[in-house]
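Appendix B: a complete holo record

For completeness, this appendix reproduces one full record from the ligand-bound portion of the collection. The bound molecule is copper (II) ion. The inputs are the chain sequence and the ligand SMILES; the output is the full three-dimensional arrangement of the complex, encoded as structure tokens. No fields have been trimmed.
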Amino acid sequence: MGKRRSSTTTTTTTTTTSGGTMDGGGGGGGGGMMGSACYVYPDTPATPGIRTPDVVYERSVYMNGSMTMDDGRVVPIWGFVDTATGAMGGMDAAGPFPSPPMRVNVNTIVHTRLSVGMMNGIHTIHHHGIEPADHSDGVGHVTWDVNGTYTYQWRPTSPGTYFYHCHTNTVLHAEMGMYGALIVDPPEGPGTLLSGGPTYDMEAFWVVDEIDSRWHNLSWTAGTCGEDVGLNVLRPDYFIITGVDASGTSAMNLPPISANMRMGQKCLARYVCAGYHPQRIRIPSALNPKAYISDGRALPRPMNASSFKAISGERYDIILEPTRTGNFVIEFDIVDWITGRVWGTAKTNVVVN
Ligand SMILES: [Cu+2]
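The structure of the chain with copper (II) ion bound, as generated:
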């Protein structure tokens, strides 16, 4: 189908540069490593209170990825790479979009080691919805942007769907694609949503995002010196689900976005509102969609999820338990946050045999 961006990774650039400062000359676009002289990023400190981890994730970034849309247009994408698999990241590297997922059991101690530097810009990792100490929260400027290598230490306390994203020049970097799924399982592991709660037979991943292609030609520091680069104006021209153009039919019959079920099976749809405009979700009632978790917290009672609205960063864990066979279309309207205009609709489907 050729709608997904390639996942080839080049290894032309080493990425770990400790102790440097980011104060290069301004200008440039297309993800270029063009800094600005108005802010000097300090060196990154060591992580306080470090403990022996149960799980370690290694991440660097890529800033020269791309995604080919249904109309053939190629849009620049940035993201994270998993350096434990040998990927190096860098200015000329491309990686997966969305970024590699993290999946851990509740109450485990997790380290996320981020290595960046002069060759691929300054970034952070914010584990959205996880509540670590401030120094591991990864919110740029509030704590620090990583310039070198930093280990985020965190311990999830509640099962559900989360995501991680860069929090440096956040409005732009998250739009550029610097995010990935973060899943927290109960002690029983995958297949159980909540301890003593519902089980599922399969999963679908609905990470729904809008893209304003104009933004995707900005440099990584765009707007950080107070200049107006138009980041307050988001006019999306593409609508994607989990890294696939979903304006047409490309996200149909495409696992793990789409699901192919048999009667009697249960599918857990992990939905993330990864865009900025609110989204209005429609799931056919014949799929009997029930949300059990919202934003990583169990709901007091299951919520009928056949029609609801979500805003930026929200997540829902929805179990589909079809009441009949058929081919069902799931629709996500992207609704302007001010005017209420629908910019477009992302679509996928669930087939029940
Ligand atoms: Cu970033």
